[in-house]
Amino acid sequence: MTLTCEMQPTSQKLDAPVQFCFFRESQALGQGCSHSPELQLPTVWRKDSGSYWCKAKTLAIRVTWSPRIQIQVQGVPVWNVSLETQPPGGQVQKGKKLVLICLATQGTGNITFSWYKGALGLILETKTQRSLTAKFEIPAVTDSDTENYFCTADNGYHPSISEMVSVTVRSPVSHPVLTLRAPEAQTFPGDVVELRCEAQSGSPPIRYRFYHEDVILGSSWAPSGGGASFNLSLTAERSGNYSCEADNGLGAQRSEAVTLSVTGVLEGLLGTLGPTVMALSLCCWLKKRMGRREAEDPGRIPPSPVPQVPNYINSAVPLQEQFVYENVNVVSGDEVYSLVYHRQQERQAAVDPQRTHTSDQNASAIYFKLKKASPADVDYEDAM
């Protein structure tokens, strides 16, 4: 506001400069009297309403006073109130500080600011200050601070209300756990393995990355939280350490490494046929051992559970095989195998007395068979 003090024209010539003084009620304004007929008041408030007047004086003439004028200072209502958050966007990490800033585009005098939480308007804070901006702080937010907020500003005319602002408290992800899901306990090239990565806590969305020996294989998103999977087709080069990473923008976390061994085809066959190979090797060893014993003792005949019945080549009675069980057992899983051999003997033909007789030793043949044994057949005493 600018105050101007004017003098009425007079026939008397002023030989000395004039000084001007300004007053509100009985209080002098500014720095006292000056030679300028104007006084500027940078800011006026409603309390500055009152009676204003001025005076002029010189050394040659007496002092003169102006008439008093009444000035009423009118306040400007606040309007266009808005609410801002710090950090911007209303996304704040759990345990961090949240600042709610209430702003008014214009308004005069003391302004009362208030902050509210939720649609029902739970009041959080109220403060009055001569400013168009005010702040309210939450030092360390928790999950319960995820809510809608608004504020109001009032300088005595009528309150102005901001729009709702949504605040979301986000939690960083925990260390994820990697699980490998294979169709069988033993994996082979060509198998498809599911890599499942999951963080037990953390605000969504969460991005998961999958690694083989720190080389990224791929990534997958969990928009609503929880875990994510990645399917991997195995090759012989895929053996090694696997891990995964979870990240929701508040800091990535890495899982512990999980080791996967991909078995080759040859190794798999050996593992599957191992018991059979062992049994065949045992049979060969026993055959050689039996051959040595018969060479040392030609008259020795392996024990037989039933009496031997002579058979003749041209006899109408078919040749019968006599089975003898050796007490040699091979265990493969839940199955027990016993070594079985029989001797096929040739005698002189009954209808052909002229046929040359063949001795037992020269005509004997030993055959070995691997037969699944019933529990009753298994003899746990050494018969060798």
Explain this structure.
It contains 2 helices and 27 strands. The chain has helices at 265-296, 360-363, and strands spanning 2-4, 19-24, 27-28, 38-40, 50-57, 64-65, 69-71, 79-86, 91-93, 98-106, 111-117, 122-129, 133-138, 147-154, 160-161, 165-170, 177-181, 192-198, 206-212, 215-222, 227-233, 240-247, 253-254, 258-260, 322-332, 335-343, 366-372. A hairpin with a 5-residue loop joins strand 22 and strand 23 (253-254). The longest helix is centred in the C-terminal third of the chain and has 32 residues, at 265-296. It is rod-shaped, with a radius of gyration of 54 Å.
Keyphrases for this structure?
384 residues, mainly beta, 6-stranded mixed β-sheet, 5-stranded antiparallel β-sheet, 9% helix, rod-shaped
Task: Give a brief outline of the structure.
By secondary structure, the protein is mostly beta strands. 9% of the residues lie in helices and 41% in strands.
The largest pleated sheet is described as: 6 strands, mixed
Strands, total number: 27
Helix content: under 10%
Order of helices and strands: EEEEEEEEEEEEEEEEEEEEEEEEHEEHE
**Span from first to last CA?**
127 Å
List the helices and strands and how they pair.
Blueprint: E1 2-4, E2 19-24, E3 27-28, E4 38-40, E5 50-57, E6 64-65, E7 69-71, E8 79-86, E9 91-93, E10 98-106, E11 111-117, E12 122-129, E13 133-138, E14 147-154, E15 160-161, E16 165-170, E17 177-181, E18 192-198, E19 206-212, E20 215-222, E21 227-233, E22 240-247, E23 253-254, E24 258-260, H1 265-296, E25 322-332, E26 335-343, H2 360-363, E27 366-372
Parallel strand pairs: 9-16
Antiparallel strand pairs: 1-4, 2-3, 2-5, 5-6, 5-7, 8-10, 10-13, 11-12, 11-14, 14-15, 14-16, 17-18, 18-21, 19-20, 19-22, 22-23, 22-24, 25-26, 26-27
